[in-house]
Amino acid sequence: MKRTLLAFAAGCALSLALVSTQAAEPRTVTVARGLQNPWALAFLPDGRMLVTEKTGRLRIVAADGSVGAPLAGLPKVDAGGQGGLLDVVVDPRFGENRRIYWSYSEPGDGGNNGTAVARATLDGNTLSNVQVIFRQVPKHSGGSHFGSRLVFDRSGALFVTLGDRFSLKEEAQQVGNHIGKIVRITTDGQPAPGNPFAAGSTGAPAGALPELWSYGHRNVQGAALHPATGELWATEHGPQGGDELNRVEKGRNHGWPVITYGRNYGLGTRIGEGETRDDVVPPLRHWVPVSIAPSGLAFLTSERYPGWQGNLFMGALRGQALLRLQLDGSNKVVSEERLLTRLGERIRDVRQGPDGWLYVLTDNADGRILRLQP
């Protein structure tokens, strides 16, 4: 009996370590408002911010919070369901080439659509040299699971996360398409050097596309580079439970839909073969039985927040919170704290600004940019 009680107590202690008690809420300062369902935020070197609105508008927000008119020149966006104008990033060499990149759901023939990536030169408030550099193959009808986050790695290659389009989930296990994949491309849209399935790579599966980086993903809507290792980390929507935080591994299978902690909607029945398999990369953290609907992701490297340096922050849509994950070393989550729960708003994106503060986007018809201050 005594041993049983000790074992029970140890298990409780472990569970409590993973969900910490609520600390004092950080103060939120509204930087800008009046944005219609903003999806992504990127900082320009001069202190201005690029913000995408899911309906298909890209705006510049000045350092004083004033919201500019929509920029002209974007390709047509198929804004419906989960589709629309999605992520935006600034070229690491922006000072030289003035380029920005964005992802969006692109309309196709016969009512089909798919995730695409475009780039342009930004001169003041004007876009020029607009070019689509990547298109997800195949396009598909429907309004679900487009991804899509964009992350530059240290070599200047661009990661693009691509959803499984919901009804094509089985294709996430096939390496001859872009469904449920993460790709790594050059700024011209070509397969990046060093990709795992490049021509001549040892052990590459037959028919594997050379732009693929990893496969077996459902719907990755948060991604960031680990500041110490340079590895890509990503948050992924599960179905009914089974949301994941992953350290994305080169050339590896991340399981969906054959290996997952998620369950079928409504029924709660098992999906696929089980929760683990030797050849599948396990998540660093997963959420069951209720989904939090993870969104933007950012590592904190600044010293603005005492005790938080090195922590990982992730938005939650259904959870209406900003999660602070404390890490032990490079790949272990030791505690979780939920912040901003009293806002009652969906958190769509989180970024560390050049000033070291954390900024979040709220996903509403009157969306805001908030700055967190201790």
SSE diagram, text form:
Blueprint: H1 2-18, E1 27-35, E2 38-43, E3 49-53, E4 57-61, E5 85-90, H2 94-97, E6 99-107, E7 113-123, E8 126-135, E9 150-152, E10 158-161, E11 181-185, E12 212-215, E13 220-225, E14 232-236, E15 243-247, E16 285-287, E17 294-299, E18 312-316, E19 321-327, E20 333-339, E21 347-352, E22 358-362, E23 367-373
Structure report:
This protein is mainly beta. It contains 2 helices and 23 strands. A 4-stranded antiparallel sheet has the order 1-23-22-21, with no helix packed on it. The longest helix has 17 residues.
The main sheet comes to:
4 strands, antiparallel
Q: Rg to the nearest angstrom?
A: 20 Å
Write the element-wise H/E pattern from the N-terminal end onward: HEEEEEHEEEEEEEEEEEEEEEEEE
Strand order of the largest sheet: 1-23-22-21
For the termini, the CA-CA separation is 46 Å
What would the principal axes of the Cα set say about the shape? Answer: globular
- Unreliable spans are 1-22
Structural class: mainly beta
Number of strands: 23
The helix tally amounts to: 2
Overall mean pLDDT: 93
Short description:
The protein is mainly beta and 374 residues long. The chain contains two helices and 23 strands.
Using brief descriptors, characterize the structure shown.
374 residues, four-stranded antiparallel beta sheet, 6% helix
